[in-house]
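User: Can you help me understand a structure? I only have the sequence.
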Amino acid sequence: MATVVVIGAAVALLLGGLALFTALTARRAENLAPPAGRFAEVEGARLHYVDRGSGPVVVLVHGLSGNLRNFYALIDELAATCRVVAVDRPGCGYSRMIRGQHPELRAQARIIARFVHELRLDRPVLVGHSLGGALALALALEYPGCVSALVLISTLSHEERVPPAAFKALDIRSPTLQWLIAWTLVAPLGKLAQLARLEAVFAPERPPRSFVDDGGAALALRPVSFVAACNDLATVSDELATMIPRYPSVGIPVEVIFGRADPILDHRVHGERLVASLPNATLHLIAGGHMIPVTAADQIASRIRQVAERAHQFTSNFPLFLPSPSDQ
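Assistant: Let's start by predicting it. Here is the structure, written out as tokens:
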């Protein structure tokens, strides 16, 4: 009996120590990458966003396990000639749900559509990276006329039932297990594996040394970020399965940009197959991997500017269509 008590006390002490380490790691991450902008309450979410520059409006939406800081290089490139609004998706960065559960992909698209309306952004160009590209497609399907064009970078567009190796640790469906791992293992193991994971996501290029703080990678070690990423991964393939047959109905211009050496998402599946199903889409392949918004920010910004300059001419006859606050 005494042995059981000692073992129980040791386990409790270990778990308590891991939870304390996790809390301290989260605080340090937030000190390294604090909120960079403003907050807006939309559809039960408190969204964190940055708003820089003036000119044609471009809205940036990041991918899985990311935050708006992932776009730091692209924001700097675009802000000289465009109004750039980058937003943390719900549960990511500093955006939180005030009420309700973590939203699935189409619910997130609805939140971003309302966000566009609340900020009075007149049919911006919507730019999505990776899973953010899937969200952009969902928004274009559900709320045509809300945005003038899409630019999809290294986008997820088709089902991926087996997650890429760099994201397999997020393939956890049980909420209890998500919470337990988030508060015990993510911080210590994540810190040990952080460089290797960044190298895998950036391959074949090298991640910038400043990406942990400037690019917001440190924030992924917080429990809230881990749980949100697990939930995103758990539901996105099922949502994509219902979206794929509807892709031909997306009538606005869509620019799809991929790195030829992307190790995370195959451009033949998520780029060529997507473009073949869209009536007004083009595919651009450039040198690089999955993180071209960082490693090729100048080339990506140039493409986005070109799209922004001609987007409103194309959509001038499209009826403006936004979700009303009472829509379910």
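Now, to help you interpret it: Residues 19-312 form a domain with the Rossmann fold fold (CATH 3.40.50.1820). The chain has a mean pLDDT of 92. Let me know which part you'd like to focus on.
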